[in-house]
Amino acid sequence: MRFISETSFDGVREQLFVLDEIPGALWTPEGAAGARPLIVMGHGGGQHKKAPAIVGLARRFVTECDFAVVVADVPNHGDRPVVEKYHRIATENQARMEAGEEPAPLIAAFQALVARQTVPEWRTVLDSVQRLPHVGAGPVGYWGVSLGCGLGVPFVAAEARVRAAVLGLGGALASGADASRITVPVEFLVQWDDERVPRDQSLALFDAFASADKTLHAHPGRHGDMPAFELDSTLRFFSRHLT
């Protein structure tokens, strides 16, 4: 892991890094020492590790919970180079959706393809971050909605270190089989009028989780209309399960 920049602001230390050509960001309490809970975050489609919503939530995890947070750019996002195969599929999918084709199967197939690359990448990032003395091998949580859900479900299913997950705005077409292997506590977010993920697919994904402790938070509105107060619930959820 090679750190390429470091800044501190209002008690939060931000370190940008590159690991095996994977760019990412790590946030920790300023002056932190010793093990602490770590949240792995997955950003949404078209976003990146420094998207305002990602940074804002990461800072809240640090300042309000004393957690560490790590985010890696997904392929074809942020500081990653363009992968011709992914770019071609995304462009074709956009054209097909604009022509009236149902978006959910296209999105699901693309997310399943990208997950085959990101899951091992994220596990490598987790290995390296937990070796840092100001992070350590504490309990791990995962947060991700939309693309972060489509990639996060297979990651949580594969990674035994994850003890709790907040997921949402995703459907069973992309990751229902992986969801059936998840037994940790899950908080799942649904937008009732989501134009990208049919409601029945969201509910089917929630049903597929094998967790005994799982809660469904549903709100009216479209894909991007998730209410901001859900982030308060997210912080309470991880504080309850990781501390």
Strand content bin: 15-25%
Ranges where pLDDT stays below 50 over 5 or more residues in a row are none
- The mean pLDDT is 95
The beta-strand count equals 9
| Relative helix content | 40-55%
What is the spatial order of strands in the main beta sheet?
A: 1-2-3-5-4-6-7-8-9
Biggest sheet layout:
9 strands, mixed
- Tell me the span between the first and last alpha carbons: 27 Å
Sum up the overall morphology in one term. Answer: globular
Q: What is the chain-wise order of helices and strands?
A: EEEEHEHHEHEHEHEH
Number of helices: 7
Output the structural class. alpha/beta
CA-based gyration radius? 17 Å
Q: Which characteristics define this entry?
A:
9-stranded mixed beta sheet; 243 residues; 7 helices; alpha/beta
Structure, described:
This protein is of the alpha/beta class and 243 residues long. The protein contains seven helices and nine strands. α3 crosses α5. The chain is globular, with a radius of gyration of 17 Å. The two termini are 27 Å apart. The mean pLDDT is 95.
Q: What is the strand and helix layout of this fold?
A:
Blueprint: E1 2-9, E2 12-19, E3 22-29, E4 38-42, H1 52-65, E5 68-72, H2 84-98, H3 103-130, E6 140-145, H4 147-158, E7 162-168, H5 172-179, E8 186-191, H6 199-208, E9 214-219, H7 230-242
Parallel strand pairs: 4-5, 4-6, 6-7, 7-8, 8-9
Antiparallel strand pairs: 1-2, 2-3, 3-5
Helix pairs in contact: 2-3, 3-4, 3-5, 4-5, 5-6
Concise summary:
With 243 residues, the protein is an alpha/beta fold.
